[in-house]
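Researcher: Quick test of sequence recovery. Tokens follow.
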């Protein structure tokens, strides 16, 4: 998918504007196309440096950096004797050209630097103050006046500062004809590279939530209302009380998936508060791939993994000691995996959500997907604006794992008023995902 260049985007990149704003729906190809453009700059021989920014470096390493690296490998650039990657200062180099991959907290590195182009990937992650600080740094030197700034994002909220910037840019087009180039795209601009299941999921949002459909399918600004989790505290985990957490009750929450992401979170309970860290979040990975990853990353074999109870066969597989073959680390390899202490989670949605909402939840700031999901997770709403006490079942994989772990551990430690009443299945009614029905009477 990285070999072909999409002219829908490259025709926009050729325009002379100082600010190139690429926004739209999921799967439109905007991020991959910009990444390709920046790699082309790396090998252009023009002698310039370029930089790609994400809000935090863990976000960069997990996503944008990975895409850049794949393009570099697939295009055979690593075979060029001039190619070098400096992992200390975070840049790729071919001859005199450099391509930096940085986070906002590394913005000191650009003092006095001269960049030909800069890209703010997932611009909605940045605060307006972040954006202003960065643009001031970029315009400080006279030699940096011609820097081109790329911005790419899904328009999640019509009140976000980035959308206000888009609206201002549209209004000022006549006054500043070469300043802003605004390009809107949807999955239709990239269908050749998308799976049918992904397209079906996007188009299916129209039956789940009109706002999600507008944002992620049509790529138009939405209004995110009725968020479920508004109380998560996003924190640098190095500030947590690790001497206490290391001896506190501890578990994992696991939401199985394949086409949808498989998500594993790690959870600690201390002084009636929960601490959560995203550990695994990948699509198109099997249970064996997950087991391989957990074995090689030191996931505990004794602490409980509370997993989706609708998948008893996969739970049993994780509990079984056996040889596992996987390509998780690149080349295919086989290792011995000891069984993990995996148990079915309590899956009552309403009771679980109510409990999580009633507790202080500290989330590690490196948990990119968990944070992104929490910013999008909301209650259902019909076209008339009526809100239902039921979540939209999208953007919920790491959040489901979090709920499984927190709520089930709390039930087993007797921290809730929840008690088992009867078995139920998916056709019983609201709050049903399979597993047990329970009554929750507070905490």
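Model:
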């Amino acid at each position: 998918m990285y070999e072909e260049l999409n002219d829908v985007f490259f025709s926009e990149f050729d325009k002379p504007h100082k600010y190139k704003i690429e926004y739209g729906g999921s799967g439109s190809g905007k991020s991959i196309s910009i990444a390709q453009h920046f790699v082309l700059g790396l090998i252009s021989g023009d002698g310039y440096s370029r930089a790609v920014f994400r809000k935090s470096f863990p976000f960069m390493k997990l996503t944008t950096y990975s895409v850049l690296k794949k393009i570099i490998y697939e295009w055979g650039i690593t075979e060029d004797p001039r190619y070098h990657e400096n992992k200390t200062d975070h840049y790729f180099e071919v001859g005199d050209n450099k391509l930096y991959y940085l986070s906002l907290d590394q913005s000191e590195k650009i003092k006095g630097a001269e960049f030909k182009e800069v890209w703010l990937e997932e611009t909605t992650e940045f605060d307006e103050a972040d954006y202003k600080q960065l643009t001031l740094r970029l315009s400080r030197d006279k030699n940096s006046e011609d820097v081109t700034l790329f911005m790419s994002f899904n328009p999640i909220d019509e009140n976000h500062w980035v959308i206000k910037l888009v609206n201002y840019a549209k209004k000022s087009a006549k006054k500043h004809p070469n300043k802003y180039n605004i390009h809107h795209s949807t999955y239709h601009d990239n269908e050749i590279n998308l799976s049918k299941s992904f397209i079906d999921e996007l188009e299916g949002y129209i039956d789940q939530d009109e706002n999600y459909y507008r944002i992620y399918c049509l790529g138009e600004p939405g209004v995110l209302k009725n968020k479920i989790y508004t109380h998560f505290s996003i924190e640098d985990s190095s500030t947590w009380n690790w001497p206490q957490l290391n001896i506190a009750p501890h578990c994992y929450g696991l939401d199985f998936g394949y086409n949808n992401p498989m998500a594993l979170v790690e959870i600690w309970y201390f002084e009636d508060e929960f601490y959560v860290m995203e550990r695994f979040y990948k699509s198109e990975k099997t249970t064996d791939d997950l087991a391989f990853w957990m074995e090689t990353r030191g996931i505990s074999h004794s602490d409980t993994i509370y997993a989706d109870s609708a998948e008893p066969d996969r739970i049993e597989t994780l509990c079984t000691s056996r040889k596992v073959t996987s390509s998780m680390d690149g080349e295919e390899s086989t290792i011995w995996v000891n069984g993990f202490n995996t148990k079915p989670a309590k899956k009552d949605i309403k009771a679980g959500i109510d409990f999580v909402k009633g507790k202080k939840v500290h989330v590690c700031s490196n948990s990119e997907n968990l944070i992104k999901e929490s910013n999008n997770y909301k209650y259902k709403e019909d076209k008339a604006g009526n809100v239902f006490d039921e979540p939209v079942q999208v953007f919920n994989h790491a959040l489901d794992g979090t709920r499984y772990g927190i709520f089930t551990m709390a039930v087993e430690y007797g921290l809730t008023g929840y008690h088992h009443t009867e078995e139920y299945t998916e056709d019983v009614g609201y709050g049903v995902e399979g597993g047990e029905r329970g009554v929750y009477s507070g905490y």
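The radius of gyration is 23 Å.
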